[in-house]
Structure formats: structure tokens, C-alpha cells
Structure prediction request, 321 residues.
Amino acid sequence: MLEEPKKIIIDTDPGVDDAMAIFLALQSPEVEVIGLTTIYGNVYTTLATRNALHLLEIAGRTDIPVAEGSHVTITKGTKLRIADFVHGTDGLGNQNFPPPKGKPIELSAADFLIQQASCYPGKVTVVALGPLTNIALAIQSDPHFVKNIQQIVVLGGAFAVNGNVNPAAEANIFGDPDAADVVFTSGADVLAVGINVTHQVFFTDADRDKLAESNGKYAQYLCKILDVYYSYHHVAYSTKGVYLHDPTALLAAVTPSLITFTEGVVRVQTTGITRGLTLFYNKQKRFGEVTEWSDKPSVKVAVTVDAPAVINLVMERLTNS
Prediction:
């Protein structure tokens, strides 16, 4: 008997690679996308909502609700850094698409997450592709959320490698380090997919050409928006291609066998020069004194990824769309 598809909510700041991840999810029979929640990151939250609605219209999936998320961090800080130089000022490669017809639902992102987790306890996975504010708010406002949610797959962190905002921090964690620390210490089933793993998944210029040659609806759309993203990578990393951060995290939720992980405590540095740093404690040493690390629940941290399999799935699903 076939397993019923896993229900997922994608918390997203679209973003070129978010668009790719959302389309990939819609093309994955293993999962059912039951909602998108929006957050600042690549763009401000208002534009993230607009882009999420737009992508669902492109996909012909306006049946999927969009809940608008927080405009500020959990400590009420505003978003200072928008990655428009990576994704274009509209977040989608400066294509200036017409505004979507759809509107977000009345519920906030955090309330929608709480509602869905309590409707389907143990059945909903959140795939968090941006800063973790909405998820932290859900954890703080509903004591049952952590037990009700099946898993939180986090695209975030840089475990034992340099960050991508600065040497210490990865962008999603840096966007709201306090929220990230709440999520990592909440006791929920958390899987962190950091840039130490996503930087292994490289989508080359040749891969893009293959996408462009296919008749896939999503493939064609993505090729239009990928230019700015490619140019940024050519300049910033001197590469002939792009890293597939969001699609890798999404596929870790869809097909967990693509990655391996280790387990331990993760804390996030919230102040100073290393603000946004994710530090993994492997629990091999038992320390004598009580510290901020004592009695914290373990999370899973991805260590390896089957990069060729990820690229193949991305190609196959987007070209057959």
C-alpha cells in the first residue's frame, strides 16, 4: 500500500532558489504542500508574500493558502540586510511580473503553523527556507506546537565552515539568531541542513542550459529568473554555476535518504562579532559544571548529501513539469 504523502508547509522568502524549491515540492508525489508561510530574507516580508502568491499562480495551485509572516525579528529588530544583489530587487531576477490576483489568508504565519500542526498532529513537516522567526513565534505562543509538529527541516547554519554573510554566520540564521536558538533548543524534531552540505550541491551552467532546452513549464520559468542569481555567483564565488541551497533542504524533507546526519546540541550566538554562529556540541564529553549547554535537547545536523541524486531529481522534476 502506498504511503499517504507527507504534509509540508514551506516557510519561505522567495528568492530564486526558493522558487525552484517550491516548484520542486509541487512536482514531488511524496509530499502534499498544504501551505506557504512567508518571511523576510531575500526580500522584505510583503514582497515575499507577493512572490509566494505569484509562484502559486504560475503553478496553477492557487488552492494552496499563503499566510504572511513576521516583518520583524522575535526581538522586534527590523530586517537590515536584503539580498537583492543576489536575487534581484523583486526577488525573482528583476522580471517585473504583474502583481498576483490572490491574497494571503487572514491568519498570520505563526497562527497558521499552530493551526495546521494541531489539525494534523504528528503529520506536518515545516521546511524553513528563511530566517526562523515564524517558527520561533509558533513555539513561543503554543506550548503544544513542538509536540504536534512532525519535523522542522531548517535550511540554515554553517557547521564547521565559514558563513556566507560573514565568516561566522549563514544568512538565514543571521536574519534572526534569537529565533534560531529558540528553534534549536525547543525539543522539536529539527534537522538542520547547513551550507556545509548545500555547497556540495552545485548546479552548473551546463545544467541550466539543459533546463532551458526542456519544455517543462517550471524549467522555462526558472531559466528566465536565474540570470541575476548566476551573475552573483560568478562574481562572488568565481564559479560557473550556483549552489542549490533551498532545493537541497526541501529534498531532505521529501527523501530523507539523500542525506546523512549527526545528532547533538546546537546553540546560536546572538551577540557580538560572531552573531549568527551555529555551534554544534557532539555530547562526547560530559562537562562537570552546569552551563547554557546542559540538558539541552539534541537536533539532527546534516553531514553529507548525495549531490548527483539531488541534481538528477531537480532536473527530472522540473523538466517534466
